[in-house]
Amino acid sequence: MLLSHHLPGRPEAGCDEAGRGCLSGPVFAAAVILPEDFSHPLLNDSKQLSEKQRDALRLVVEAEALAWCVAQASPAEIDRINILQASYLAMHRALDGLQRRPEFILVDGNRFRAYPGVPHLCVVKGDGKYASIAAASILAKTYRDAEMYRLAEQFPEYHWLSNKGYPTLAHREAIRRHGLTEHHRRSFQQLPEGEQMALFEP
Fold first, then answer.
1. Three-state secondary-structure class, residue 106
2. C-alpha distances in angstroms, 118 versus 78, 86, 113?
3. Other Cβ atoms closer than 10 A to 166
4. How far apart are CA 62 and CA 68, in angstroms?
5. pLDDT tens for residues 37-71?
6. Which end of the chain, N or C, is less packed with Cβ atoms under 10 Å?
7. Which one of 3.30.420.10, 3.40.640.10, 3.30.43.10, 3.10.310.20 gives the CATH number of domain 12-153?
């Protein structure tokens, strides 16, 4: 059973991101403010759910949340400021986009860059502990998957329909054969050590 709120009586936003470990595509983040009495039997860490369950829960969260927003940071931004800072940037953008200002923020993980004027708490594996973080994980994951499906239509050779940009064998083999797209994160080690130099052309 997920906890509804850390501090009852205050509008509280849960925050989570998706796609930090990928070789390609943006990193997505979501912020969600749920009603204090919100509960759903399926709601859990998005990684514990099937794609069909995540898609169904996305509709529930969007319909029942008091406020929600999904944002992203691009591969170019990831390369410029690093993936951790880009994750914070995407979370701050999601918080900026909320129609209600939260009085407290729950963040999945152990690190966060403070959001101006609003206190926060980092919760390791928070998407399995707090409903608002779980809801944010659902939105971040489903929106990111949808974006990778869209990009896969333009670049079918990278198998993003199945790997969604993660470093699978098929994805890395496609990089060996076809090189990088503008959607790949050039600051990431795309191939194992020793193959990297052949990948980047001057």
1. strand
2. 25, 20, 11
3. 15
4. 7
5. 998 988 876 678 899 999 999 999 999 999 999 99
6. C
7. 3.30.420.10
